[in-house]
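Problem: given the chain below (235 residues), write out its structure.
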Amino acid sequence: MNNSTESQWLDLYNKQNARSNTTKKEKVGQQLCTYFFIYDCIEDTILFINSAFTAITGHHTDGFNLNFLIDLIHPADQSYFFENEEKRLAFTNALKFEEHFRYTTKYSYRIQKADATYLRIKQECQALEVDDQGHLAKTLIIHKIQDQKNFCAQNDYKIFDKVHSIYLDLNNDFNLTKRELEILTLIKEGLTSREISGMLNVSMNTILTHRKNILYKTNSSSFIELVKKISCAEY
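Solution.
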């Protein structure tokens, strides 16, 4: 940069709130509710963890690795952690290249703070990088603090499809057919019955029949209600 552009950049740099001495720093741990780290799937190492981890948990970031994280997990939740990691691995192993960036996996468990108390976190994993073979190489892992009072789910493992803004029905709890799932996805995207009919090359009557069956199977009075159920807005 020449002197003029360098001066402009320094001016912008110094205007950041982070550079201001007037920024209040007290009780920062109480204000933060999220921290994240980057995991190298190939080398099995943590490449980076942000400072919010220390503010929230009281633990230092020095030496933070997967073994340390696993040791922090509540003993009663460790088997659940490994069970969900097995599910996540099976799912991501079936993906290739850009498919990895489409999904986010989520589930929760408890970790121990430095003061020996526990807090519940929602863990979200999403792809950051794939290798030249199309395999997952680096993952962004986000931990969000959860309200333990309102927590009641026994199994909260979910996969979010960012393209369609919908959670996958992993167990097909509604027992929908492949065609019904396809139509439901198109409805979620805002397509009309006529548009779906043309796209799938089936009659309008067929689409209307599928719509009725979908509402019946999901015990929903409307597709607005059904989309709310599937989208799990609380997550």
